[in-house]
Design a protein that fits this description.
The structure is a homodimer of 418-residue chains.
Chain A: H1 21-28, E1 32-36, E2 39-42, H2 44-63, E3 67-68, E4 74-76, H3 77-82, E5 95-98, E6 104-107, H4 112-119, E7 131-140, E8 155-165, H5 168-188, E9 195-200, E10 210-216, E11 222-227, E12 232-235, H6 241-247, E13 254-269, H7 271-275, E14 279-281, E15 287-289, E16 291-298, H8 299-309, E17 311-312, E18 315-316, E19 327-331, H9 336-351, E20 356-359, H10 365-375, E21 379-383, H11 385-390, E22 393-397, E23 403-406, H12 408-417
Parallel strand pairs in A: 3-7, 9-12, 19-20, 19-21
Antiparallel strand pairs in A: 1-2, 4-6, 5-6, 7-8, 8-16, 9-10, 10-13, 11-12, 11-13, 13-16, 14-15, 17-18, 21-22, 22-23
Helix pairs in contact in A: 1-8, 2-5, 2-8
């Protein structure tokens, strides 16, 4: 994309009403727009980052056999009453609305009930298992206090997957397979090394733990205890001597950290399927309960966590896999030769499938370099009268100071073999 | 995808609570799930169709320079009050909700106001024009009566684009360029020949017409008058002698038809930008009004229209461009050789980028053929003991009865050169 055609602009000053670094940087770089507290719109470059994260999450859910679908935001009351999750006293963060005739509706905050209901006519026999279904969708939660930018929103993007199994053993297998997919997601996003599978409370209807995925971060709301050697953590809420013994962990090896929950996986046992009256028939013709698991990843929250983690005093520093573009071409000066060379390089990169931002604006070098750094584009190429003269342009990584002098073919090779 | 792994199943009987053919067929084929009247979830195959339509729409909006963003569903009251579109007496199909502190919020039904507001800090100078921005997003409208399946929903997918121009002449250019993109969208979806650009009422604040795109269909709610030679239509609401004269159309050449509105483009003049106090500064430093246009395409409605149009007594008949898969492989019998050959063909097609549904279920031929037809997959290949013996499988188009006997390479070539 050419920057003369992009409508967003960067701003020098952090917005006064944001204290979280992720929101400040993303707004300054023109990636997001604040609609109200906890509700952000995604502008073109921000939407690209969000879509790149979605793609990684989607690919890993597909790898384990996840079938993508799209449930609805508007929710009928009756299915939620069956599980006792409609009453505002039981679930305190619903947004609710009404049909013209007065019928109350919910605005989707999660989808266990509708997923079980939608699958009920398809999943009837032991032959129909195992099943993973998932969606990547906007969720709505009426948080009393939205805070920390993209980390705790009222409207946010979530991937939620659900598994259905015939029995506990089959469930356990699905659960672990999903856990492995989760690790791959965080690895591919570049935060694998600082993200811990964390034992947490399993909720009121199970003796089991649930698993959170906690990324170490100063902005984190959770206190966790980390065994760095075993790469396992325990949430403070279940950090007891008894549980440590059960998990084979030693208190002396555990280090206290702040974490942001970037995912959770949860054994739901047969709570929702039983409550909604959805069973299957086994080989002997007997009615059996369905064991369910749920698996959440906060996609927009991850974007916030990544912005916090991959940034420095100059701005964002996106990893290649999620950057809105791979290369920033800074054209300096407006001599015809410079314009022609910059345009040619831009076309060459785009044809090779390397997404480029071409800064063709009438601005000084410092401003262009500042924007390239603030936007966090992984590579920057300078095309100026001097570089055109020598036939070699200045190519530099966002994270390094070393400048490579390369011709167009060299730039392509540098970017492809990086 | 292998059908033993797909959780959806087809059903023989049309759902009793649906009268519209599109909803009946899509539910029978397992493409959608009805959550409540006017609110449908998209199951795996249905989601693929929806995404294929989105891709075509997206590509054409990008072609004219559209910048994709994603506005929010939750809407603050204040910006809508500025244009007098908050009050339920003025706009009667809002869904509204409340923050925990009682603050009223809207649930997005359209996005003129938030788009103008989000762009206001970026679009300040004459240098910042022209601009097209668009999104593809769920919209929510509190319809008194949801009906006609996907054609009039309470929750639906819409592409909405907005153009911002410095003056009327620039606006007119943007408007026509978008109109051309719209024609390409309907052509690519296979309904170009039955979709008419239709003069319609421009609304209360302009003397101009708006343009609707009407697809001829018995299920249509609109009455239009079509000049089939000039490929132009006029909506009944503006079908007067005076207007016909203005448009250079002759009453004798006009034929009355039923149409479904599958898109509309609208000159907004400076109504929203002025009301929200968003102006630009021209070359002389003078404050100027911004001329706006809006461009809608009902993406999920289009899926319904396409299901109505591309269907026969056996089920759906998707055009290649939007089919959930290109080929249906019906494996007949469970001899090892048959399984191996079917699997090999499946892998060969998928490797070549040709999406296949492999029916590896233990069902009779008639049931597999029935499902292939109901789902509307463009091509069907039969792999049986007989075809494995001869080395040539039976390849057939959904719309033709002729059977081609082809080996795997022949099938690939047939599908690629079709």
């Amino acid at each position: 994309m050419k920057l003369t055609q992009l409508f967003t602009k960067t701003t020098k000053n952090a917005p006064a009403d944001e204290t979280a670094r992720n929101a400040q940087l993303l707004i300054q770089a023109g990636f997001i727009h604040k609609e109200m507290a906890g509700v952000y719109a995604y502008l073109p470059l921000g939407l690209r980052v969000l879509e790149n994260i979605k793609t990684i999450v989607r690919e890993e859910m597909n790898t384990v056999g996840g079938q993508e679908l799209m449930m609805t935001t508007l929710q009928p009351k009756d299915i939620w009453e069956k599980t006792d999750r409609w009453d505002d006293k039981k679930v305190d963060n619903w947004f609710k609305t009404k049909l013209a005739n007065g019928t109350e509706l919910g605005v989707g905050l999660t989808h266990e009930e509708p997923v079980v209901d939608a699958l009920s006519s398809f999943v009837t026999s032991y032959k129909d298992f195992p099943i993973y279904v998932y969606q990547i969708q906007n969720k709505f939660r009426n948080e009393l206090r939205a805070k920390s930018g993209l980390l705790r929103g009222r409207e946010f993007v979530m991937k939620d997957m659900y598994s259905l199994a015939r029995n506990q053993a089959e469930h356990d297998e699905l659960y672990e397979k999903a856990a492995e997919a989760y690790s791959r997601v965080y690895d591919r996003l570049g935060i694998g090394a600082i993200t811990y599978r964390t034992y947490a409370d399993g909720g009121i209807f199970t003796e089991k733990f649930s698993d959170e995925y906690q990324t170490i971060s100063d902005i984190g709301e959770d206190t966790i205890y980390v065994d760095e050697t075993k790469k396992i953590a325990v949430n403070k809420e279940v950090y007891t001597d008894e549980n440590l013994a059960k998990l084979g962990l030693l208190k002396d090896s555990m280090v206290e950290k702040r974490g942001v929950e970037v995912g959770n996986i949860f054994p739901l046992e047969t709570k929702y399927t039983d409550a909604l009256g959805v069973y299957y028939t086994d080989e002997q013709g007997q009615r059996q309960s369905i064991v369910m698991g749920c698996y959440g990843i906060g996609v927009s929250r991850l974007m916030g966590v990544l912005a916090e983690h991959f940034s420095d005093d100059k701005g964002l520093v996106w990893p290649d896999a999620i950057a809105p573009a791979m290369v920033y071409i800074a054209q300096l000066g407006d001599e015809e030769k410079v314009l022609a060379e910059a345009e040619e390089l831009y076309n060459q990169l785009m044809s090779a499938g390397i997404e480029a931002l071409y800064d063709d604006r009438d601005l000084r070098a410092g401003q262009k370099f500042g924007d390239a750094d603030l936007m966090g584009i992984p590579y920057r190429v300078v095309v100026s009268a001097k570089t055109v003269e020598s036939g070699k342009h200045e190519c530099k990584k966002r994270t390094e100071s070393e400048v490579h002098l390369l011709d167009n073919d060299g730039i392509l090779e540098f970017l492809i073999t990086k």
